[in-house]
Specification:
By secondary structure, the protein is α+β, with helices and mostly antiparallel strands. The protein has 4 helices and 3 strands, in the order αβββααα. The termini are far apart. It binds zinc ion.
Length: about 150
């Protein structure tokens, strides 16, 4: 078994330290909350939609390095994507974090999370914000929930 330090690769450290698209959105079309009580990760994902395409996406909240970095990488990738494209990306990402298999022909910052598969408890940390984003993108008209701030 690899050391847990291997899990925290440069990409993850960087996104954890300087999360992209981090903050509450002023006028979101859709909002969803992701909660992982086992680890204490709690995030809100904010979306502005253009039909079924994400125009703007931000996230806010707190949690472990894996969950925060994953949300940061996710928001960077999902901007401008359609719901179908989001689902395909999530399917690839879910396969990556559960199998550890990297698609060499399709490398991205998501590949940094391949090591997560060795730590099953962390898979939820990595996929939490994706679930929230998919929920928000798929279900219009949900009432925004209060955002937890530190
Ligand atoms: Zn976590």
């Amino acid at each position: 078994m690899q050391d847990i330090a291997d899990l925290y690769q440069a990409v993850i450290l960087d996104h954890n330290r300087r999360p992209r698209n981090f903050g509450e959105m002023e006028n979101p079309d859709r909002v969803a909350v992701g909660d992982n009580p086992v680890c204490g990760d709690h995030y809100t994902v904010f979306l502005q939609m253009d039909g079924d395409r994400i125009r703007e996406i931000t996230f806010h909240g707190a949690g472990c390095a894996i969950s925060k970095a994953s949300a940061s990488v996710m928001t960077s990738m999902l901007k401008g994507k359609t719901l179908a494209e989001i689902k395909a990306l999530y399917s690839d990402f879910h396969h990556l974090v559960t199998s550890g298999e990297i698609d060499e022909g399709n490398l991205s910052d998501l590949s940094a999370f391949a090591g997560v598969h060795q730590f099953p408890a962390r898979i939820k940390c990595a996929t939490l914000s994706w679930h929230a984003a998919l929920n928000a993108a798929e279900r219009p008209g949900e009432e925004p929930e209060p955002v937890t701030t530190e």
